[in-house]
Fold this sequence. Notes:
Number of helices: 11
Strand content: under 5%
Distance between the termini: 30 Å
Number of domains: 1
Amino acid sequence: MSAAPYALVHVLILSTLLGVAHGGAAWGVTPLLVFGVVPLADRWVPERARRLDEAQRARRARNPWFRRVLRAWVPLYGLTVAACLWRVAAGVSPLDAVGMVLALGITTGIGGMSVARELEAGGHRAMAELLALCAGAVSGSTGAASQPVPVQTRSTLYGYVPRAVAGRVRRALVRHGQRRRARGGLVGAASDPRVRYPVGLALMGLVAWAVAGPWGLGIWAAQLAVAAALVESLHYVSHYGRVRFSGPQRVSGWLLLHPPVQGEVRRPYWLRGVPAGAPRLPFGGPAAVLVALVPPVWFRVMGPHIRIGQHA
């Protein structure tokens, strides 16, 4: 298999730039793609393989395009943000502003954080931190310091998201404080994430203000909120009931770069399969988030899967 399907994550860039170019209804292309086209495609495209054989892994390991998909995201995303701020500076209607917030927030929260996770795992920490901050990840990390808060059975998405954001911040502060004490407090301000991350967020806000004024700052802050909410929503559906669900749906996997599950964490996204016997979501991540927006329906759908997952 080639790396071409994983370029689906870059379609989020193109759809957001389409909104910049045309405004109006064009801003709806990104949410329609993620929450409409991808879930429908999951129903028609066969699920991905449980495990890759050694020959498949060897071929993929030799293919440089899987890594290029990740590295290409950073400059293209920067171009997209710059184009959005330029559009705001030129003047936007309130409706266009809402559309921009949704499109850019979805692009950042789904595409940006998926790429950041893989870049951090591959040792590209600086680029991963930058993308994580753009998604409102105030812990500045996609790794251990930023593990999701446990999701209790019958907890709602609306209650989980704010609790998860606060929990990540608290966990990151504790973790970085422990590291500082372990080093005898000999950590400069620039090396201390508790200083570096808030300063980074503040600098991003200042740039947005400088380029596009108060509207630019407001839209940037709002897209941070949308992106952070999406990140936590995806964690909610994939960790619901303290069960780590896998997603065998192929198209959602291309878009989300196959989030790691138990037994596949140390492998790069292009080598991950679906472990045998792993609890499975009945639908892909974006569709699961839509269902979770209606808690009674979500509880009813996930009840049997929780019971299976807890005995897996």
